[in-house]
Amino acid sequence: MPEDEECAGRLAALQEEVAQLRRAVDSHAVVDQAIGIVMACGGTRPETAWELLREVSQNTNIKLREIAEHLVRWPRCGGLPEEVRLALGAALRRREVGGGRIRVRAGLREELREAHREGPRETTSACVPR
User: Fold this and answer.
1) Are 52 and 42 in contact (CB under 8 A)?
2) pTM of whole model > 0.85?
């Protein structure tokens, strides 16, 4: 029956749309949390924090959502992946040199430099993005 096939197709399309919307909402929440982390650590405004996340994502070729997940896991994991640490540190330095209004949290700059000198850290499954 064509009507049943049409209904089944429409139902499948709607289920996929709902799944996509759920993923988007989850991703948005993680990105918002990461913006807050960058604001707290870098002393930035929300717009600047968003720009920094975008810049890190573009410079590392890692999806912005994954960068955000790394930042949100940072306190629990004790560090960021080396590529993300380096890109975030460089982005913060460029903003400072460019006259941007960034007041890096006391110790963050040294923490990023020290992490670079130490090299990559072991990661646990909780520290690896989904």
Assistant:
1) yes
2) no
